[in-house]
Specification:
- The protein is an alpha+beta fold.
- It has 2 helices and 14 strands, in the order αβββββββαβββββββ.
- A hairpin with a 5-residue loop joins strand 3 and strand 4.
- The longest helix has 41 residues.
Length: 202
C-alpha cells in the first residue's frame, strides 16, 4: 500500500467518526427540544397573568424563594412558596398592590415517566400571555415585550400569527380566541408552517 493510499484510508476513518459525532449531537439536541415541548405542553393548562420569571434565585429560609423575572413587560421580584403537592404560589407587587398566582406541572419522558417541574420550570412556562384591557386593547406580553395586537385579532376568525425579533432571534406566536373572552396561544422558536404567514410585531 502506498503512502497516498494509507493517507486516504486514515482520512476516511476520521471523516466517518465526524459524521457519527454530528449525529449524536443532533440526537441530543432533538431530545432536549422534545423535552422542552413536553414541559410546555404539561404547563399549558395553568392559568396565570405573569411573564417569564427566570434569572436567579436567593434562598430566604424555609421553603420560600425569591426569583426575579418579567411580568407584564417589567422585571419584578417574585416570592415563591413551594407546596407539598408539587405546586407553587407566586407573590409579587404590581401597581402598588400585591398579586398572587399558583401553578405546577410535570414533564414526561419518552417512556411516560413523570417528573415534577421545578419552580423555575413552572415560571418559564408563564413567559407569554395575551390579555385584554378594559378599553378593549389586546396585549401580547413576552418577557420585556408588550405589544398591541388588537388589529391582528379583529377578523372573523379571531386568530393571528405574529412574531417578535429580539437580539437576532425570532420567536413565533400562534394566537386564537378561546370563545370565552380569553386567548389560547403557542410559542415556538420556529414557524408553524410558512414564516411568511407571520407578521413581525416587535
Amino acid at each position: 500500500m502506498t503512502n497516498k493510499e494509507k493517507y486516504k484510508e486514515a482520512f476516511s476513518v476520521l471523516h466517518a467518526s465526524d459524521d457519527i459525532s454530528l449525529e449524536v449531537e443532533k440526537m441530543q439536541k432533538n431530545k432536549r427540544n422534545s423535552r422542552r415541548k413536553q414541559v410546555i405542553a404539561a404547563c399549558a393548562c395553568v392559568a396565570i397573568v405573569a411573564g417569564s420569571m427566570t434569572a436567579y434565585a436567593t434562598d430566604l429560609g424555609g421553603i420560600q424563594t425569591r426569583i426575579h423575572g418579567w411580568i407584564h413587560g417589567e422585571l419584578k421580584s417574585v416570592d415563591v412558596t413551594g407546596e407539598t403537592d408539587g405546586s407553587y404560589t407566586f407573590t409579587w407587587t404590581e401597581d402598588g398592590t400585591t398579586q398572587e398566582a399558583s401553578g405546577g406541572g410535570v414533564s414526561m419522558d419518552a417512556s411516560g415517566e413523570q417528573t415534577a417541574l421545578s419552580a423555575d420550570e413552572v415560571l418559564e412556562s408563564f413567559s407569554t400571555s395575551v390579555e385584554t384591557d378594559d378599553d378593549g386593547t389586546i396585549w401580547l406580553y413576552y418577557e420585556s415585550h408588550k405589544v398591541d395586537i388588537t388589529e391582528y385579532l379583529s377578523g372573523s376568525s379571531k386568530s393571528c400569527k405574529v412574531a417578535i425579533k429580539d437580539n437576532g432571534t425570532t420567536t413565533y406566536f400562534d394566537i386564537k380566541s378561546n370563545g370565552s373572552g380569553g386567548y389560547s396561544l403557542s410559542r415556538s422558536d420556529s414557524p408553524q408552517g410558512s414564516a411568511d404567514a407571520y407578521t413581525i410585531v416587535g
